[in-house]
Amino acid sequence: MVQPDSIKHSIEQGMTCELVRVMGDGQHFEAVIVSTEFAGKSRVQQHQIVYRALGDRMKEEIHALSMKTFTPEQWAEESR
Prior knowledge:
Blueprint: H1 4-14, E1 19-24, E2 28-34, H2 43-54, H3 57-60, E3 64-70, H4 72-78
Parallel strand pairs: 2-3
Antiparallel strand pairs: 1-2
Helix pairs in contact: 1-2
C-alpha cells in the first residue's frame, strides 16, 4: 500500500519545493505543494510539474491525487 510519506518524498525529489504535505488512505491522496516552479504557470501546468515529479507512480501506484498548488507568495496569502 502506498504511504503518504512515500508520495511526499517523490515530489520533493522531483522538483524544488518549499512545502509538501500529503494525506491519504493508501488509494486516495490530497496534497498541498508550495514551489517557486509554479510561478507564472497555469493550474494545469502546475499539476503537470507534479505529475512529472511522480513519474510512473501516477500510472501504477497512485489511483487518485487531489492537489492544491501554490507559489510561495500565494501560500503566504493563503496562510494568513
